[in-house]
Amino acid sequence: MKVKKINEYSKTPKDSISNQYNTKKHSFQEPGIKLIIGTRGTGKSYTAAKIMLEAQKEKVFDVVYFITPTFDSNKAHWSQFNIEEENVFYPNRESIGLVLSKIETDRDEFEDYLVELEIYQRFKRETKNKNTIGKMENENLLEYMDYGYVGENGTINNKIQKPEWKYKHISGKIRPPTSLLIMDDVLGSTALSQSESFTKLCIMNRHIAPLSEPFDNRQALGCSVIILSQCYSSRQGIPKTLYYEPPYRSAIRTL
Fold first, then answer.
1. In angstroms, rounded to a whole number, what is the distance separating the alpha carbons of residues 110 and 165?
2. Fewer C-beta within 10 Å: the chain N or C terminus?
3. Which residue range(s) make up the domain with 220?
4. Using CA atoms, how far apart are residues 177 and 210, in angstroms rounded to an integer?
5. Would you say residue 145 lies in a domain?
6. DSSP assignment of 141-202, as one string?
7. How far apart are the first and last CA of the chain?
8. How many CA atoms lie within 13 A of 97 on its CB side?
9. 143 located within any domain
10. Domain count within the chain
């Protein structure tokens, strides 16, 4: 049999947009969904904390959310991560939707920041000297007045400061926000069984909270998920959205 290559499909698609977070070579790829399965007392919270500590070294996640009824009783594990109280939710049918809403709010604030930064940089260029000020467009002047860069009498505010993004990264570079959601002791709750948001979270995952414009390799914020469970069965609580029959159980990684 002879094989002949045809030219109709010779072009390769662009793959620069991956929506992946920056992680070390041998770390878990993020954002992703991880299940930590074990009976009571086998160290599920310990394993999750181990993953989080490694991610904390590299500042992989800007914000961590929890959906659990037992956050206070597991504080020994979680207190080292400075989890904000407003980011801890009791499991019910609205809890995942509330987390997604917070992620989308972060997306909106990030895009607003980029707009303000662009206006600030343009303002600094256009007020560099008398020549640049004289070429300033009226439309831009109105924007500067809205931001308080220029007073109503036309005076330039010399005390303005460069906009700063609320999340800091060790590299010093600006990036779209990165998120992690921990779900613990939620089997049997309406957070899983009666939540369309859970299906959305699992299917979209790295496409959660899309950006208006690509930023580096990101077109969306995405959200990593870790689910801690005492059993691995769709009949006992894990929705079929995340359920795989053997032999795929062997794919679960042990730390």
1. 8
2. N
3. 33-112+166-251
4. 12
5. no
6. HHHHHHTTSB-TTS-B-TT------SS--TT-------EEEEEES-TTSHHHHT-HHHHHHH
7. 49
8. 9
9. no
10. 1
Pairing mode, strands 218-220 and 210-215: antiparallel
Place of tokens 């959601």: 181
* Beta-strand pair 88-89/63-67: parallel
Q: What is the pLDDT of residues 76-114, one digit of tens each?
A: 778 888 889 999 999 888 999 999 999 999 999 999 999
Nearest to 226 by CA among 33, 42, 93: 33
- Pairing assessment for the beta strands 210-215 and 179-184 based on DSSP bridges: unpaired
How many Cα atoms are found within 13 Å in the side-chain-facing hemisphere of 43?
A: 6
CATH assignment at residue 187? 3.40.50
Reported as a single tens digit per residue, the pLDDT across 240-254 is: 666 544 443 434 444
Q: Would you say residue 14 lies in a domain?
A: no
Q: What span, in angstroms and rounded, lies between the C-alpha atoms of 173 and 116?
A: 17
SS3 234: helix
- CA 18 from chain centre, in angstroms, equals 14
Which tokens go with 158? 């010399």
Q: DSSP per residue over 219-233, as a string?
A: EE---EEEEEES---
Average pLDDT, stretch 121-127? 84
Q: Which amino acid is at 81?
A: F
**Model pTM score:** 0.81
